[in-house]
Design brief:
alpha+beta; binds iron/sulfur cluster; two-stranded antiparallel ribbon; 10% helix; globular; Alpha-Beta Plaits
Amino acid sequence: MLIELVRDIGYKTKPIDRDFLQKPNEYPVTGEHNGHKVRAGGMTRYDAEGKPYPTSNGIHGTQVAVDWENCVADGVCMDVCPVFVFEWALNPGQAGTGKDKPVEPGTPEWDQYRCDKSDPIRENDCIFCMACETSCPTQCIKITQP
Ligand code: SF4
Ligand code: SF4
């Protein structure tokens, strides 16, 4: 049985925009991180209540895309991925439920991230099984076959 350790990030998440690749004006490529593209990094976006997200980390990855504003660090995507695509962004080399780096309120990491984030560092290894996308509790992963 999977253990879910959803972190409290203090705002209401919403699913990733499944059409983000078709909206380059809304989600322009704003940088690269660990070998994958980042879209809308540094840009103001809005949570499920219509309030601006307090973070602006953007969407990480293309064929394996994780919307970092909505990742709550429970680690299920890592637990189910058969080819180890993901690692924790703040705890490099580690993956899986309970192995995220705790982020404490009042710290610079809290201001920037609110919690650790699932980083698709090996997105080119994806075999498109869809296990992560269907398991993510906040629906913040979108898999796109090239
Ligand atoms: S679709 Fe499957 S192989 Fe690809 S990242 Fe998700 S769990 Fe891993
Ligand atoms: S991407 Fe989804 S399943 Fe993976 S750690 Fe974040 S919230 Fe959990």
